[in-house]
């Protein structure tokens, strides 16, 4: 049995709001080009609190969705969120470990995985496991970020160090906050065909206030701020250096600041040969 690592960002109400802000702010960027035909069977693995699920359903209202998460609390929040927005949606909810999915082989036409692989100690194993439930010729969509793609103005070594604290903590827990750059080799190594990976960059400055607030402040900086106690406990930074780094990150969201981050979106096909 293989199990995911602990979710490094936690399950607080603050994190639920952050995930919602992220999904809503980046919906057009991340979900553009993803729509499923009426009647198709779609599996979303690691649905969390349903922040991405709602956008999937908005783009494909006639598809049949199955949403899976390992956390019962997150799954309950997802059901509440999605049902409130789409009371007539075709969706079923399952608490399960993605490495031991309770579905027959070739159950789904499409699989959607967003911000999940970064939290797994064995992402290639996970992708191989997903091939089992994906029909031959079915598609897999994967979206992941890469904290190494972050740059900003004004530049700050302290801000970069604070970001690196989150990267190190996630690595210590068994995850990988830099996984976006690895999607192509991971997917090909797991046996997928026709793998295409494309960057989806977020750039925010004063002319894009929605991105400044929704992404720079409420998504990215909020995520880094949330690991303060763990970073200090691990001795990764001193309290004064951490506070300076966070203050410098907030400067990138002011009138003279800019912020850049790159997500990676992959599309791949299950060729239908034997799964190892």
Automatic annotation (TrEMBL):
GO BP term (any one): methylation
GO molecular function: L-histidine N(alpha)-methyltransferase activity
EC code: 2.1.1.44
InterPro entries per record: Methyltransf_11, Methyltransf_Superfamily, SAM-dependent_MTases_sf
Protein name: L-histidine N(Alpha)-methyltransferase
Keyword Transferase part of the UniProt annotation: yes
Domain of life where this protein originates: Bacteria
Residue ranges occupied by any Methyltransferase type domain in the UniProt entry: 43-141
Keyword Iron: no
Xref: SUPFAM superfamilies: S-adenosyl-L-methionine-dependent methyltransferases
Keywords: Methyltransferase, Transferase
EC supergroup of this enzyme: transferase
One Pfam family matching this protein: Methyltransf_11
Species whose genome carries this gene: Streptomyces sp. R41
């Amino acid at each position: 049995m293989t199990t995911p690592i602990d979710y490094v960002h936690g399950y607080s109400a603050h994190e639920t709001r952050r995930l919602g802000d992220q999904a809503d702010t980046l919906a057009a960027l991340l979900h553009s080009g993803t729509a499923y035909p009426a009647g198709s069977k779609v599996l979303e693995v690691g649905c969390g609190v349903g922040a991405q699920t709602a956008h999937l359903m908005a783009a494909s209202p006639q598809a049949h969705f199955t949403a899976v998460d390992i956390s019962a609390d997150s799954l309950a929040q997802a059901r509440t969120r999605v049902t409130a927005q789409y009371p007539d949606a075709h969706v079923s909810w399952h608490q399960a470990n993605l490495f031991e999915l309770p579905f027959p082989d070739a159950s789904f036409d499409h699989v959607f995985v967003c911000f999940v692989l970064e939290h797994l100690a064995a992402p290639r194993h996970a992708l191989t496991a997903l091939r089992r439930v994906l029909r031959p010729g079915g598609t897999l969509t994967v979206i992941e970020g890469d904290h190494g793609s972050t740059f900003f103005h004004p530049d700050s070594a302290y801000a970069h160090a604070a970001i690196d604290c989150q990267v190190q903590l996630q690595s210590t827990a068994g995850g990988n906050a830099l996984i976006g750059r690895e999607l192509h080799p991971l997917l090909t190594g797991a046996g997928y065909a026709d793998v295409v990976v494309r960057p989806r960059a977020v750039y925010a400055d004063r002319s894009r206030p929605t991105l400044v607030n929704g992404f720079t402040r409420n998504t990215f900086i909020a995520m880094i701020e949330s690991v303060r106690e763990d970073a200090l406990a691990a001795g990764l930074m001193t309290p004064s250096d951490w506070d300076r780094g966070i203050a410098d990150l907030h400067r990138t969201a002011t009138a003279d600041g800019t912020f850049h981050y790159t997500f990676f979106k992959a599309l791949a096909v299950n060729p239908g040969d034997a799964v190892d």
